[in-house]
Structures are given as C-alpha cells and as structure tokens.
Design a protein that fits this description.
Length: about 425
C-alpha cells in the first residue's frame, strides 16, 4: 500500500464519547497501515466533566499521526458569540495545506467535522468521504436548515461509510444519497488493543485513580462541578460497582442510585463508582438524587470521565458495570459499554431495552453472562444476589469472559472503517 497523506476532521480524546474513540482508533489503524494522517480537531475546547476527560494516563501514538489543535478563542469575541469550530478548523487546515498535499479529506460526524471536511475538499478540489454516528443522522438531520446542508454534503461525498442496517440506509437515501456511494460497515469494530485481557487482575490503578489521583492532572479543580467532590475508599475488601458514561434521563441513573441505596441497607461491603460527564444542569440534578440516597454516604465516588485507555484498567477492578438505558431517542445507536464490561470480566447489568437490541440479544444471556433487568425492584433483587452469592457472581463473570472471547474472535482484529478508508484512498489516488 502506498503512502497517502489524509486529512481527517473529527473529535478525538480527550473529547468524550464513542465517536471520539472510534475516530481516533481508525486514524491509528490507518497510520499503522502506512498512511500519513493529520487530524484537525477541537479536542482541547470544552470543560472537564462536560465535553472533556481527565488525562490520567497516556497512550503512545505513531509518528505518522499528527493531531492538530485549533487555536483558542480566548481574547477574541463577536456578537452573537459562537465557538467558531468550523471556521477555526478550516483555517488551521488551510495553513497546513500550504505546506502539505492532502489526497483525501475525511469527516467523521456531521457537525462540524464532516461539514468542515466537505468545505475543505471543495476549496482545494480533493475527494471527500465521511462517516456518521447515530445522533447526527438520527437527530441533527431533522433540523430544517441543517438537513438541506447535510443532504448536499452527502450527495457530493465520494463515499459515505455507514453501518449495514436498513434503518440507516433509509435515512441516508431520504437525504438524497446515491445508494451506490454507500460503503457498508458489515461487521462490528474490534475493541482497542488496550482491552486485551491481562494475565492477572490488578486493582491498584482503579483504587489510585478513583480515590482522588485524577485531581493531580487537573490544573483548575475549582472549575469542576461540585458533584466530583464525592469520594470514598475503594479498599480491596469492597466490591466495586461502576457506571461510566454521559448523564441523561435515558440512562436511568435515578433508578440505579435508588436501587443501590436500598441494597445498602443490608449489604455494606461494596462501593459505587460513577464516572460521568454532562451539562451543569444534568450533573446538578444527579447530585440532588445522590443527596437523597443517604445510605450511600461514604461508599460513593464520583469522578469526571477519563481517557478511554484508562477505562479497562478501571473495569478490571469492578464486579459489575451498569448500563440501564431506556427509551433512547436515537434508533441507530448501539453502545459498546456491555462489550467493554465483559471483555474486562465485569458483569454487565443492563436494561431490558439493551437486552433486546439486535446485537446484544444474541450476546447477553440473562443469568449466564449478564443480568438483564426491567425496573427498580428487579434491579434491587438481582444486585443483592450478585453481592451475596459468590458462586452466582463467579458463574456470571466466567460466562462474561467466555462470551467475550467468542465475540471478539468473530469480530476479528480488522477495523472495517480503516480498511474501507484505506481502500478508498488508494482507489481515489489512482484516479487523480
């Protein structure tokens, strides 16, 4: 494979979320395959606990990957004010294009990244391809003005990378995309290499990070939301229960906290770890719920999101991971949290909604490798048994690990996104 310089526009860590991780992993895979990659990103904009993670550990990046950060807007203003992400990314890309020749522009997520990649490609007359997520196609594309722009962008793209699902195909075609330009991602993406299971489980990282070490990496702790002041010991005699992700109504954190609070009346040898991000109002609402759960005093730790490669090190020290999403408004959304949990030997405790999803209904078997619950009373009963019955917990953990080995073997170690982009880059380069 020849060496192409590809410019990517997208979110990468420390921006939180699955799209950020997938974009970054795809860039790394392309680099390992021999492509030179420049990533234009706004990753350093935003606030820790809302859009950004704390950097509690680092990851080595190949030399042929450059992450180019847009300059801060501090000291600049206009009325009405906007963060000018699109304009700053285009300006930064134009500066680099003066000394580099890019053969392909890639945008990942419609706004602002794919729009920036699209405009950059038009200005410089180079091919453009894009990948979408669930929320941009499922929600942002419903906005009247944005829908017109997205339709034009999608129709002009040399290729659109999309999961092989009828519902996504229908949505894209309704925006005017030519079906011939859809490149289907027909299988799941492998988990990052840092999810490879170690020979032994070491809880020391989990204990150090969750019990305040992360604060050492934050230059301005005073700016953090007060919810992150909750801290308790993660002693080795305590079972660690964990939730990590964005705060929203659909995640049912109120149900989780109330159920765990009830279990705490008769079961004391556990601690609850929440690794959460969200808007101030969402975090404040969560803090109010915590205040009502008096049995959790001294056994709850709340911390902001961490870099994705730190998550498996934390999960390996956890007994269970909760993912109770219900009634999520994006019908093309599929989280990797349960997959990440079973890979690390933590028992996934999921909602009935998650258990019914096309992928997880074939993977998660209630009582064998996971716990599937419908409502708070059932969650309380099953959680109590998990904490009290060591044999039951062992069966679930072993089932989770066995299932993960099979699932990851079937999915394989080839990232279909990087494989598709690499192939398209070669094809498009041969036409220039």
């Amino acid at each position: 494979m020849g060496r192409d310089r590809i410019i990517m526009f997208g979110k990468v860590p420390p921006i939180v979320g699955g799209v950020s991780v997938q974009t970054f992993e795809t860039a790394l895979d392309l680099a390992r395959a021999g492509h030179d990659i420049d990533i234009i990103s706004n990753r350093m904009d935003g606030r820790i606990g809302r859009e950004r993670a704390v950097e509690v550990s680092s990851l080595e990046v190949p030399e042929n990957v450059r992450i180019l950060d847009i300059a801060s807007m501090q000291g600049f203003s206009h009325i009405p004010f906007s963060p000018a992400f699109l304009e700053r990314m285009l300006g930064l890309a134009a500066r680099w294009h003066g000394s580099q020749h890019y053969s392909l522009a890639v945008g990942w997520y419609f706004l602002p990244y794919s729009v920036a990649a699209y405009l950059f490609s038009k200005i410089n007359n180079i091919p453009f391809i894009l990948a979408h997520a669930g929320s941009d196609l499922g929600r942002l594309s419903l906005h009247g003005d944005l829908r017109v722009l997205f339709g034009k962008m999608l129709r002009d793209a040399a290729a659109v990378l999309t999961p092989d699902r009828d519902i996504t195909k229908e949505k894209l075609i309704s925006l005017g995309v030519d079906a011939d330009r859809l490149v289907y991602i027909r299988k799941g993406t492998p988990l990052p290499s840092y999810y490879s299971a170690p020979k032994t489980v070491d809880r020391s990282f989990c204990e150090r990070v969750a019990y305040g070490q992360w604060r050492e990496t934050v230059s301005d702790c005073d700016n953090l939301h007060p919810i992150y002041s909750h801290a308790s010991s993660l002693g080795r005699d305590l079972e660690v229960l964990c939730f990590y992700g964005k705060v929203s109504i659909s995640k049912q954190l109120d149900v989780l906290l109330e159920a765990v609070n009830s279990v705490a009346k008769w079961q004391t040898k556990f601690t609850l770890l929440l690794i959460v991000s969200g808007e101030d109002a969402e975090l404040s609402n969560l803090d109010s719920i915590i205040g009502r759960c008096t049995n959790l005093a001294g056994r709850l730790t709340v911390m902001p999101p961490v870099m994705p490669w730190a998550i498996p090190e934390i999960l390996r020290g956890c007994k269970a991971v909760f993912y109770l999403e219900k009634g999520f408004l994006v019908d093309v959304h599929l989280s990797k949290v349960p997959r990440e949990a079973i890979r690390c030997g933590a028992v996934p405790v999921v909602s009935a909604d998650i258990g019914k999803l096309p992928f997880y209904r074939d993977v998660l078997i209630d009582g064998v490798n996971s716990i599937v619950v419908n409502g708070k009373p059932q969650l309380e009963r099953r959680l109590h048994r998990l904490l009290e019955d060591s044999q039951y917990a062992s069966v679930l953990r072993n089932g989770a690990l066995t299932t993960s080995k099979y699932v990851e073997a079937v999915i394989g170690d080839v990232n279909p996104y990087s494989a598709a982009i690499g192939q398209l880059a070669d094809q498009l380069a041969s036409l220039q």
